[in-house]
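Minutes, project huddle
Topic: does the predicted pose make sense with S-adenosylmethionine bound?
PN asked that the exact inputs be recorded in the minutes so nobody has to dig through chat later. Recorded below.
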Amino acid sequence: MKKGDWEKLIDNLIKERILHTPKIIKAMRSVPRRKFLPENMKSYSAVDTPLPIGFGQTVSAPHMVAIMNETLQLEVGQKVLEIGAGSGWHAATIAEIVAPHDAPRSEWGHVYTVEIIEGLAEFARKNIRDAGYSDRITTIHADGSIGYPEKAPYDRIVVTAAAPDVPQPLTDQLKPNGIMLIPVGTVHLFQSLIKITKSPNGKIKRENLGGVAFVPLTGKYGHRS
Ligand code: SAM
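Predicted holo structure (tokens), as shared on screen:
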């Protein structure tokens, strides 16, 4: 059978060693970005770039989602907070890893994804429902720069918009042994992907994983409110 464009994209990410963990490869293969795009963008879904999703926002490039998912060390059963739901696609790839259908439901983790733009929160919620993830992902319309204290603490936090610095409430909402990924930097240029690891006794380690380009985080701890 001829391979589809999405299969070929995933094969390339494996060849480039961006994707290497079998369960993450499986999850990325099984959640094509196409299902989460506006109609006029669907034909570009397997191009490895960010794509417009309306409201001046973008869905991340597949290689960036692959890098983040690999770095997060995701496991079945984890509670994950995503800030910046956008299209809902990244959240769905995470749900496939922390709550896969081949694991008993009692062992499933959950993804909470927060979106500040109401129209996009509705878009993400609809995409998540249509793709069959409503039981594993909760979409919240709120300012995620303050985290989502209602369900804290989290095993993993992933922020998909660039903040001026790491918001303290997000660090506070991370469990011991937790990992957070967050782009930090100026509005358009000079952003770095920061990995925060919390030790069992609450000590924070901060690593710079290199340059990235994300839309700005807004809200209380963002670039503007
Ligand atoms: N993860 C998304 C996906 O899979 O489509 C892409 C996210 S897009 C790069 C960043 C998103 O963060 C935008 O939808 C933007 O509206 C949202 N955002 C920015 N500041 C926010 C905040 N303070 N709280 C929640 N969402 C925020």
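Observations noted during the meeting:
- The CA atoms of residues 33 and 139 lie 18 Å apart.
- The beta strands are 51-54, 57-59, 79-83, 110-115, 137-141, 154-159, 174-185, 191-198, 204-212.
No decisions taken; revisit at the next huddle.
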